[in-house]
Amino acid sequence: FRRVLFRSPYTFGMVTWEVRLVTTSGLGLGPVWQVNRTFEVDPMAPSVLGADVERYDHRVPAADQRFEIEVMDHVLLPSSLQAMVWFEWRDDQNGDGWPDPGEHRAVDLHPPADLTKPTGVYTLLLDDRSGIDGERVGVFITGTDEAGHALQDGGGAQRTEHLFIYQLGPERAPSLPSGGFALEGGPRSILHPGTVYTAHVEMEEPNGLSDLNKVEVHLAADSASSPMTVVWDVEEEVCRSTTALVIVHDCDMVGPMGKAGPFDDEFTLVIEFELSWTTPDLDSLTRTPGAILKIGRAHV
Fold first, then answer.
1. Residue 16 in contact with residue 38, Cβ under 8 Å?
2. Which helix (DSSP H) or strand (DSSP E) does residue 88 occupy?
3. HEC string of 148-173?
4. What's the pLDDT tens digit per position in 182-199?
5. Sign of the C-alpha dihedral, residues 151, 155, 157, 158?
6. For 193-231, how does the pLDDT look when each residue is reduced to its tens digit (9 = 90+)?
7. How far apart are CA 188 and CA 185, in angstroms?
8. Is 152 left (phi over 0), alpha (psi -120 to 50) or beta?
9. pLDDT above 90 covers what percent of the chain?
10. Which residues of 25-62 are buried (b: 16+ CB within 10 A; e: fewer)?
């Protein structure tokens, strides 16, 4: 006998294979000369759709820290998936404060009750009470489905590939230090249109930069009709002017060690801008700058 390999067709649903013996010498055949087997073809790999935690987040330590990860597979959901978990206080072998390959340990996920649905929620339970305020936990998901396809979009072991990483600590509010808005070169009583200026906006967020959603800088915070707003989107890392009166040349969020990281709790937004020549002259009236930090639905 010779072993023969067949490639299944790229399709969904049930497929039947038939194996038939045919005599070429005129002799008779035995009692079993034809065999049929029916299989369900699964051409798609399972994939992670999302989780009930932000990619960078924070949590209060708990004995039963719970996370829900939604997975999709069109034919049959995997019966077993694993979370590769990194506790900074236990697994950070090189002491750099970030997860690296070889520093994770496997934890089984709890699968959904019904694996025949196209999507299901897998549950991860962790006990992170051994960590102290400010330490981190990193997670990525791995495994295969019943057809042998490896899970997609579950993250990886490199520090930029994790599915999510969170910092231990309570919920705290962001703040703007007194005098946190300043123009480079010192205070100015007059800003001329067509001249490029650099503004520095200092901020503090005990839960880290990633906890912020947007930063709004108002060059005319005391003008309800035209606050001359510049918005920094934390996730996209871009600045946008909401008015034709302000032209933004460049923006950057700077932390203590250069570019601000997701868990930096002190950082400065640096904005290069100029005023348009269409900016109206308000005679003796002045414009007062201000800023708003937005976190979720709340802001300060």
1. yes
2. helix 88-91
3. CCECECCCCCCCCCCCEEEEECCCCC
4. 888 888 878 888 999 999
5. positive
6. 899 999 999 999 998 998 888 898 888 887 777 888 999
7. 9
8. beta
9. 54
10. eeeeeeeeeeeeeeeeebebbbebeebebeebbbbebe
Sorted by sequence, the CB contacts under 8 Å of residue 178 that are 6+ apart come out as none
* Start-to-end C-alpha separation, the chain: 77
Strands ordered across the beta sheet of 65-72? 47-51, 65-72, 119-126
Helix, strand, coil percent values for the chain (each to nearest 5): 0, 40, 55
Structure tokens at 264: 């930096």
Its pTM surpasses 0.85: no
Tokens of 164: 């999510």
- The C-alpha atoms of residue 281 and residue 139 are separated, in whole angstroms, by 55
Going along the chain, which residue ranges are E strands?
A: 13-20, 34-41, 47-51, 56-59, 65-72, 81-87, 105-108, 119-126, 136-143, 164-168, 181-183, 197-204, 214-218, 229-233, 238-241, 246-255, 258-259, 266-275, 290-295, 298-299
